[in-house]
Amino acid sequence: MQQNTRSPHKTQPFRLNTMIIALLSAALLLGIFIGVSLTSVANSNPENIASSVYIDSAAPDANVCVQYGASAIVTDTRIFLTLNPFKVYVTQPRMQPGCVLRTSDWAILQQRNLITSQQTSNCKNSLNTFAYTGKLEDSPQVSCVYPNDAAGNLFASQGQNLTKFQ
Length: 166
What we know:
By secondary structure, the protein is of the alpha+beta class. The protein contains 6 helices and 6 strands; from the N terminus they run αααββββααββα. It folds into 2 domains: 30 residues; 96 residues, no CATH class. The strands form 2 sheets. Strands 1-4-5-6 form a 4-stranded antiparallel β-sheet. It has a two-stranded antiparallel sheet with strand order 2-3. The protein is elongated and about 95 Å long. The protein starts with 17 loop residues before the first helix and ends with a helix.
């Protein structure tokens, strides 16, 4: 009689012991901690504006701006045009926080005597609105601004355009 020299191998199911679970949990928590740390560092630097929350908090009179309008990034640039020879010169942009008010909330500027009734009429007749930089109590620079939607929001439509190429 021949004996079977091969013993049958029983495969045991893989069991997670507490050591493996602890190591995987620690790795997951460490990954989450590193991710949150890197994200927080990226958003806290004023040179890296990564969210509208930062822009809202940096706006002049942030509470007033959010309640009566919208915070904005104001870019001041001067353009010089020569005709002979024809050349265009542009200064370096100066970035600063600002606020654009809704047309229904101009009273906040009128109450502080920051705009005259003539300025209000001129701005209203052109279907514009007022925007400002600087704190309201520190004589801000107020401008009548035109809402230009002609170019559209290329950031919002970028996702739609990407699907055309896929």
